[in-house]
Design goal:
This protein is an alpha/beta fold and 149 residues long. The protein has helices at 2-21, 32-42, 57-67, 70-79, 95-107, 135-148, and strands spanning 23-25, 28-29, 46-51, 81-86, 115-119, 125-129. The chain has one domain (2-148): Glutaredoxin (3-Layer(aba) Sandwich). The longest helix has 20 residues, at 2-21. The radius of gyration is 16 Å and the shape is globular.
């Protein structure tokens, strides 16, 4: 019994380190596999942001108007696992990260940016969406509506 508790604690610590090591900032993770582990462990849906963070106008607008605002950040911290899948033109990326992002874009049929996917904690697609007008509060309601289906 003591071994199981120690093992459980060890797993929680490792998951926490993996999550922090794969973070893009403000709660966003970049390692999809680590995000899946976290989503399952916390029983939270994942929100995937396929973005061109340094060139896509609508992506930049979504980040500034919604993802960068406290109303969204607070909701997401409590209810979602956030995953940024970036396709930059001017920023460097590791070969592993680029390959992961391209494989996921192909897997989910992403054809443009921004594409937002809401996945179950098990990684099943719930809905595909994108930019929505109205700011962070409206976007939170949009995501809540998707999850309520």
């Amino acid at each position: 019994m003591k071994f199981q508790k120690t093992l459980s604690l060890f797993c929680v610590v490792v998951l926490g380190l993996a999550a922090s090591a794969s973070a893009a900032g403000d709660g966003w993770m970049t390692d999809f596999e680590a995000a899946q582990v976290k989503a399952k462990a916390e029983n939270k849906p994942m929100l995937l942001d396929f973005t061109g963070s340094d060139w896509c106008g609508w992506c930049i607008k979504l980040d500034k108007e919604v993802f960068g605002e406290a109303a969204f950040k607070d909701y997401a911290a409590a209810e979602l696992v956030l995953v940024e899948l970036d396709f930059p033109r001017g920023k460097g990326q590791s070969a592993e990260l680029k390959a992961q992002n391209e494989a996921l874009a192909k897997q989910y049929g992403v054809r443009g940016f921004p594409t937002i996917l809401v996945l179950s904690p098990d990684g099943e697609l719930i809905e595909k969406t994108g930019y929505q007008r109205g700011g962070p509060e409206a976007y939170v309601e949009h995501i809540k509506g998707i999850l309520a289906k």
